[in-house]
Amino acid sequence: MMNHQVTKAPSSGKLSLLLGVLLSWWLILGASAAPPREVIANALVAEDVAEQAKLVGSLAGQADPLIPQLLAKWKESEIYIYEPTEPAGPKVAVLFVGEKDADDKFAAVRVDTGEPLKDKDGKPMRLTTDEATSADTDANLRLAMKVVLDLIAVADPDPAKRLKVVQQMGLDQDLEKLPALEVRVAGEPDAKVQRALKEAIALLQLKSEDPAKQIAAAKTLATLGSIPAQDALKTVAREGSPPVAAAANAALAEIAKHLQLVNTYGTVFRGLSLGSVLLVIAIGLAITFGLMGVINMAHGELIAVGAYTTYMVQNVFGPGLALSPFGMKLHLPGFGATGAAYDAYFIAALPLSFLMAALVGLVLERGIIQFLYRRPLESLLATWGVSLVMQQLLRLTFGANNVQVDSPAWLSGNWTFFDVIFGWNRVFVIGFAIAIIVGTHLLLTKTHLGLLIRAVMQNRQMAACMGVPTERVNMLTFAFGSGLAGLAGAFLSQLGNVGPGMGQDHIVGAFMTVVVGGVGSIFGTVISALGIGVVDQSFQQILGNPVLGKILVLGGIILFLQWKPAGLFVTKSRSLEG
Fold first, then answer.
1. Confidence check: pLDDT of 349 > 90
2. Per-residue DSSP letter, 4
3. Which domain holds residue 16?
4. Can you state the angle between helices 522-543 and 242-285, rounded to 10 degrees?
5. In which element (H, E) is residue 79 found?
6. Fewer CB within 10 Å, N- or C-terminus of the chain?
7. Mean pLDDT, all residues of the chain
8. Phi, psi of 63 (to 5 degrees)
9. Structure confidence at residue 141 as a pLDDT band (50, 70, 90)
10. Within 13 Å, how many C-alpha atoms sit on residue 165's CB side?
């Protein structure tokens, strides 16, 4: 089988320069107006490699998915050139499709139109591989194709995909991709992608043989504070000439300063988000234990109730849910929602999680807790037994294994600012915690129920003498605290596993947060949660060991409580109860 011949190619350097000029020109003019099929077909039958490169370069800026398909087939020599002999006619670029027949012939499809190749009588033709010659390429033509394909990749309509491609090009440090990036950077509308383009160009220029370009690239990377460039800069610092090495070391020093700031801000954010998680978990306990004085060891299971409620709502919005409580077969039908409608399940799950946990708390208070006020040891033992029963009920209903709760799309991404990654779910939990604290404060200070709660908590006997229905207030207060635990469970379902024992993973942290802040002090719980979160993350960042960091935090809390057993903020009370 013969190969399609082309004339001698110009030098690689001249062609690269010509290609860069051509690409810039075609992008400015909005790329070729001809259909990609026709342009590629004309390039295939052109006799001169410069003309082929010019035609291929004219495809730059077009996003037709047919371009990479045809260019890939060309590079793999899967496109053939057919030259009619009877009657004689111009060369035609064709693709062989389907299976060959008994005569080793394939159906032939024209590249320029996508229609079958026809003979003089208008009948579809079948050809053998000996009746056509494969379209060949050389290094310069493949370079032209590569630049066009890279430009297609960095011109994807989705900015997130463009960003990913550009970042990978920079890390690959392939100098052949430099023309495509340099052409794209001027017309890139997205600020993030444009920054990534500048960073990628500088990373590629570090591989240049021109020291001036290497020094300029190092300065650009220093200005951008490019964290991914550190390895490349270290290599240049070791292997480059003295001026280049000095520029690389200076860039590394600037990036180190930037990285220190990023780590500081990132640690503060992670500390605030961890503190917010602790606060969401502990705020319900601050009501039931801090204000009411009830040691509720089943608080963790109330959190699990909220999490499982979220799981059930998710399945009702989706395909439905099959349950087998106590051996019975139950099926909850689903709405079959998708997209944004399905993602709305979490909005519906929040109030339902509160109500379900509040209802369970109400039953718990009426059935057990009301007989154990002012009896802390008995309440501790009784609620610990309740927690074991509730765990078993959850296992019998939902199974012993963890269940999967999907995060809505609007909680699954992140936002990057100053190289600090802000997860949307972490940002949400901070806002969620603020909303809960503000709502609880308004309830306790601005409503009639809040006035009654404060009166009963300060002096239960005096409030009863003044006509306050203390039993009803106790019931509603405990239900409210339990409902807050359910809200915590709804959000924790977005951060970790949901299982029957998930409450046990959080109960110690909840009590620790309330005790450090001061029993009975909502404000103290807020300060305690945020403080523990920031200190924990700071230790982890400094020590580089999460386990050791948590051990030091726990040890610090023990020492702190030795110094201030009542916590940060001592709640004053008029109660004379022992």
1. yes
2. P
3. 12-140
4. 150
5. strand 79-82
6. C
7. 83
8. -110, 25
9. confident
10. 18
